[in-house]
Amino acid sequence: MSASASSDAHVSAPRAWVRTSPHTAYLTADNPGDMTLGGTNTYVVGALGDQWPPAEGAERPSIVVVDPGPDDAAHADAVAAAGDVVLILLTHRHADHTGNAARLRELTGAPVRGWTPELSAGAAPLEDGEVVSAAEVELFALHCPGHTSDSVCLRVDEDSVILTGDTVPGEGTTMLDYPDGDLEDYLDTLRELMEHRDLAVLPAHGPAGESLHEACDRLLDHRLTRIHELRQRLKATEDDIAPSAGALASSIYGDVPAGTRESALKTLKAQLAYLVDIGEIAGFTD
């Protein structure tokens, strides 16, 4: 899931913090929509103490901020006011996750790290398998391509939780941002995540707490079912040489809300590209 961001800053009233584990909590940005569900969850990670956010006048702990959200001044102010931001991490490039990064960096001076140099400022990009030590907590970075090529998940083993960005949403499924997003990569990512010990999912959209294994199993079953349905449709229409993605999307997603049609088309193209890669169709057209 991803949302496009306006070039103008969106100003909104901050919402309530949700505590998700001893070392994590999130504040949802005011950007609800078809692709963002209730909005983007901005996480803080650190030695948060018994009360979060801290009471007025109490010492503010050091925190790592994950996915500062869309361009929203009030949201950035609320996050910066809650703790001493020492590091900003990005799970991937979409603007509903990164739009506030420059603003929060300006407010706090904290470096920004994502998977690519383009996402990073004041520090090196993240590396697969890297242990990020900051704010008295260790986060284990995992490269998890599929939704986008630069998607990253972050494990906090001390709490048995994993921050999954859009790779594993809190409800529903995620889009594949073709051509950057890739179905084969996504299937591999889900299978690899299922191999990790039992962790609770802290997603960038939707409620937290689902078992990582169960969530990945659900998403894997969904994707494999959709591929099977697409194969059957292509065979039934004898359109398995070079089908039109646009025509298929119109017939499959005719009743899909307008706000999600572009994302549905991208995911469909990722499915068709997968069938090309494994030799089941020769190609497809737009």
**How is the quaternary structure best described?**
single chain
Query: What is the alpha-carbon Rg in Å?
Result: 19 Å
Sheet-strand content, in percent, reads: 15-25%
Helix fraction?
25-40%
Helix count, per DSSP? 7
Question: How many distinct folded domains?
Answer: 2
Give the name of the CATH architecture of the largest domain: 4-Layer Sandwich
* pLDDT averaged residue by residue: 92
Q: How would you characterize the overall build of this protein?
A:
The protein has 286 residues and is α/β, with parallel strands linked by helices. The protein folds into two domains: 17-213, Metallo-beta-lactamase, Chain A (4-Layer Sandwich), CATH 3.60.15; 223-277, no CATH class. It is built from seven helices and eleven strands. It has helices spanning 73-82, 95-98, 101-108, 183-193, 212-236, 245-252, 258-277, and strands spanning 17-21, 24-28, 41-45, 62-66, 84-89, 112-113, 131-134, 137-143, 152-156, 161-165, 200-203. The strands form two sheets. Strands 1-2-3-4-5-6 form a six-stranded mixed beta sheet, covered by helices on one side. A five-stranded mixed beta sheet has the order 7-8-9-10-11, with no helix packed on it. Strand 7 (131-134) and strand 8 form a beta hairpin. The model is unreliable at 1-13 (pLDDT under 50). This is MBL fold metallo-hydrolase. Residues 39-205 form the Metallo-beta-lactamase domain.
Short description, anyone?
This protein is an alpha/beta fold and 286 residues long.
